[in-house]
């Protein structure tokens, strides 16, 4: 019996229709799974149905049924290696980027070797939080080194060639056009000799001649900002916190000019000034005079903070320590004295030479000091508390001017010759055995300074100004928020407001700035003693132990005395243990070992 086919029976089912379709090409991020059928495209993953579990309802007030207990198990965090994106691709570089330990230690500022003895719980938690924050900051700073595009260069000779024999003309021919334009000579014999100074950003240059010529310019673009003749002898020039203000030490008084050459102030309390220094973080202009006075002038308020009498005659040698803002003065008796406006006496005195001191320079890290004297000696001293000479060299002519670069290169001006010595890297001691570069000028040197963030050495001499190329002398990367050479006028004004708000008081200048973060134990003990004498009792003293009364006959007099004595003995043991830990351990004398014991060994001590 033939059956009539039902309508629509020849139509394949829905699943067969999906398989009959053309295969969908598989992307590279899609992986084959065992669950996919052969010949079928993987397609998007299907949504899994959630297991809808019955949630326990809050029992009502009148409900006496048992409450459900929900066990709160810790959620298992998946490792970042198993995480996938929306496309299904796996991240080949999961997690944060690795950072080397050496780079992190370079940015770490906490000394973990010093431990606070027996800190309280609250103090210990604060210290742990501060250390964790400092470690995270150092890791971020180390990871951001990848953004520093520039690297410091250096000059290397071929096949053992002496770099001191390489001339400036050879360096100019080898470098690019932009770097070659940084080498120039200004022939100004009519008004020399000259003293010069670079701005903190390294973009502007100011110089003043002995016969009254004062000028300031953008030395990169060679655009002149101002040029005047003060009709008076100029001893020194110095930029203040920005290139908009310029201090000039003239024959009689100290004058302040703007970048247009207009005189703004005449400070008559600073007379017969020979040298100028500016402390940027304290807004202090320091002057050394022929009368032997060291004066600190606060340029933010226009007041003299301190006027100190050095009692050493004429002051013509002065420099600053960029690390702690301490002023170094060189004297005619061969000593170098260190000064702070907070004290009327020098912080330290160092005997450096058998004759008078001619020049002093301190490196940017504040660890080394270079001095030269009339005995033709060039010495390097350690400023980290010992003040001992590290190396010395006898020069044919005594160095009259010294300068350190940002990366630790030392330049010395001897007559009409400039010698430069280099070390192994930043904060390393320069090697005085062989000079790194040598250059002969057209006149005697009267001023030296390395340009910040540029491999340039500015030299002021009797014939004018010379800009030398010194590869590897400056930091290749600058902080745009601190010293930006490309900042606009509006950015400079905003930076000035921020710098004024962050101004450091002059009373905080000391030899070791890290001591400001420590506790002055002597002053604290003295204050506690004076407070106890004033009140008649010590409010911080701990009350004596009083045992709590107990019941059932356990609070008898003998029991209370016994408990008090037990607590006192425990406190005494703790004190003895602490005193023994603080005492240095004595090394026991090694007894002579013999083959056979002797009866006389009992008398050996």
Automatic annotation (TrEMBL):
List locations, semicolon-separated. Answer: Nucleus, Nucleolus
Alphabetically list the UniProt keywords: Nucleus, Phosphoprotein, Repeat, WD repeat
Outline the extent of the BING4 C-terminal domain.
435-513
Name of the featured protein = WD repeat-containing protein 46
One short Pfam family name for this protein? Answer: WD40
- Function as written in the Swiss-Prot or TrEMBL entry: Scaffold component of the nucleolar structure. Required for localization of DDX21 and NCL to the granular compartment of the nucleolus. Part of the small subunit (SSU) processome, first precursor of the small eukaryotic ribosomal subunit. During the assembly of the SSU processome in the nucleolus, many ribosome biogenesis factors, an RNA chaperone and ribosomal proteins associate with the nascent pre-rRNA and work in concert to generate RNA folding, modifications, rearrangements and cleavage as well as targeted degradation of pre-ribosomal RNA by the RNA exosome.
List where Basic and acidic residues composition bias occurs. Answer: 53-66, 567-578
- The WD repeats are at 350-384
SUPFAM superfamilies, per this entry? WD40 repeat-like
Domain of life, per the record? Eukaryota
InterPro entries per UniProt: BING4_C_dom (IPR012952), WD40/YVTN_repeat-like_dom_sf (IPR015943), WD40_repeat_dom_sf (IPR036322), WD40_rpt (IPR001680), WDR46/Utp7 (IPR040315)
**What binding partners and quaternary form does the record give?**
Part of the small subunit (SSU) processome, composed of more than 70 proteins and the RNA chaperone small nucleolar RNA (snoRNA) U3. Interacts with DDX21, NCL, NOP2 and EBNA1BP2.
Q: Name one GO biological process term.
A: maturation of SSU-rRNA from tricistronic rRNA transcript (SSU-rRNA, 5.8S rRNA, LSU-rRNA)
Region Disordered, residue ranges: 1-97, 531-605
Q: Which GO terms describe its cellular component?
A: 90S preribosome; small-subunit processome
